[in-house]
Amino acid sequence: MVGSAILRRLRNRGDEVITRTREQLDLTNQSLVAEFMQSTKPDIVILAAARVGGIHANNSFPADFIYENLIIECNVIHQAFAAGVKRLLQLGSSCIYPRNSPQPMVESALLTGTLEATNEPYAIAKIAGIKLCESYNRQYGVDYRSVMPTNLYGPGDNFHPENSHVLPALIRRFHEAVQNGIDKVVIWGTGTPRREFLHVYDMAEASLFVIDLPKPEYAANTEPMLSHINVGSGADISILELAQLVAEITGFEGNIQTDSGKPDGTMRKLMDVSRLSAMGWHAKIELREGISNTYRWFLENCESVRA
Q1: How far apart are CA 240 and CA 266, in angstroms?
Q2: What is the pLDDT of residues 64-91, one digit of tens each?
Q3: Which of 98, 120, 214, 248 would give a disulfide with 113, using CB separation of 3.0 to 4.6 Å?
Q4: pTM here?
Q5: pLDDT at residue 220 greater than cutoff 50
């Protein structure tokens, strides 16, 4: 989802882009990644590939999440360096911050407390990616940056009934309830946790904004100024309020029930985006508009996303 949005934006502004599909290049294979980097010699690398999913997927496949994400990051970042790449941007996640971080979460909260248990393996892998970039910057003087997006959604999302994130899962669930005449939809948890959402088109714009920032002066043995930057909308919403909004957009008029037997995850995750805002970037797509846009895409691609 994110990679394709960034790709569209790059092509629209006239950049020459080198890509490979998952079938063409297995990023968990070190020798194949090395061959790709050496043969193409890119000027800039944007690492948007990852194994991602919601609470159910993270709980069900913790080994897959930590292994695949660690090895993708190690392969791409190291082989990019070996091929002489001076500029790189890797995409992380807001789950890198401790479970009980003061809200909104600032970049300096990294590694100050215990992670949320439901996605700890994924979070550890993403923290490792940040530290890989920092370490290559400090040792070799390259310019490798990381952006930490909040919960993303939009066209091209994963609408799997069990392994998707909360917003696409709700869109599919309410749509199918309307289609099948079901008058009740149950959502996981108590509905009280609050989440922040950012449209993928905004994320693509933010990613290119960050990669285009002038290179900071890195001081020896200090953390690079731009090692990781939060990207978000700056506003959050409860899961129950989100469900009510999705119900309205999809035309569902039945009852919404919560299931407190399912995990809530972190009770609040709101990003402090003041650092990026001070640099001149702000999200543009409001949540209702973004969900409506995403639902239209879902309707147009309904058969393929069901698979």
Answers
A1: 15
A2: 999 999 999 999 999 999 999 999 999 9
A3: 98
A4: 0.90
A5: no
Crossing angle (nearest 10°) for helices 287-300 and 166-179: 60
224-238 residues labelled b (16+ CB within 10 A) or e (exposed): bebbbbbbbbbbbbe
Q: Is 122 a catalytic residue?
A: yes
Taking a C-beta distance cutoff of 8 angstroms, is the pair 307, 301 a contact?
no
In the DSSP assignment, the letter for residue 90 is E
**Structural Rg of the chain based on CA atoms:** 19
Per annotation, catalytic residue among 97, 122, 153, 218: 122
Residue 104: asked if its preceding bond is cis (omega within 30°), the reply is yes
246-253: which pairs have CB atoms within 8 A and are 24 or more residues apart?
Answer: 246/167, 246/170, 246/171, 246/174, 246/291, 247/174, 247/185, 249/288, 249/291, 249/292, 249/295, 250/171, 250/174, 250/175, 250/178, 250/295, 251/178, 252/174, 252/177, 252/178, 252/185
Residue 257 has pLDDT above 90, yes or no: yes
- Length of the chain counted residue by residue: 307
HEC readout, 199-253: EHHHHHHHHHHHHCCCCCCCCCCCCCCCCEEEECCCCEEEHHHHHHHHHHHHCCC
Structural domains for the chain: 2-306 (3.40.50.720)
Distance of alpha carbon 22 from alpha carbon 141, whole angstroms: 31
Rounded CA-CA distance 269/231 in Å is 13
Q: In whole angstroms, give the CA distance from residue 123 to residue 129.
A: 10
